[in-house]
Sequence to fold (226 residues):
Amino acid sequence: DTAVSQTPKYLVTQMGNDKSIKCEQNLGHDTMYWYKQDSKKFLKIMFSYNNKELIINETVPNRFSPKSPDKAHLNLHINSLELGDSAVYFCASSQEGAGKKLFFGSGTQLSVL
Amino acid sequence: AQSVTQLGSHVSVSEGALVLLRCNYSSSVPPYLFWYVQYPNQGLQLLLKYTTGATLVKGINGFEAEFKKSETSFHLTKPSAHMSDAAEYFCAVTTGGYQKVTFGTGTKLQVIP
Fold:
C-alpha cells in the first residue's frame, strides 16, 4: 500500500505538448509538494500546498500549474513542454509544521523530445 | 535565507570502512536539519533529522549525525560501510512553519568490495 503514489512513472513526449502528472497520498497529511530533480540530481522545490491552498510557489514558469482537488491529491499540469523541462518530478507530503519528515513518491521521469 | 553545502559530490569507501559525508548549513534562525537517502530510480527516504534537543542524532541503517552549531555542520557518519549503503545522500535544511526544505546538491556514496 504505497504511501505517496504518482503516475505515470515515465513520460516521453514532444515539445509543445501538454501533459499532467498525478499524485495521491494516503497518509492523511495536510501538506503536499512538487520537487524537480535535474540531471545532476539537484532537487528544487516547485510548489507546496497546505489543505488545498498554495503556500509555496517558487520561481517556476507559469506553464506549470498545480491543482489540488482535495488534500490527498496534488496534480501537476505542464503546458507547452520545452526541452528544459526534462527532469524527474517528485511529489511529496508531510504533516503540517516545521521539521516534519517528507514522504516522497517514486518520481516521474519526464523526457521532452 | 537558508542554504546547504555538501562537500564532495562523490565519496568512495571500502566495505567495512568509516563513512563520513559532510554537510554545512547556513541559516539566520535555528534550523531543522535532515539527511535523506535516494536509491536508484526511487524517491528520497529520511535517514535522520535534528529538530531540538540532543545534538547527536541516530537514524536508520546504523547512520548518525551530529549537529554542531559552532561549526554550522551536520555531518553524517556510519562506522562500517555495507554494500547496500551505495546510494545518493542529501542533506537538507528548513526553518519555517510551512516548511520550505532546501536540499544540498547530494553526495554519491560508492562502496568498494
In short: The longest strand of chain A covers residues 43-50.
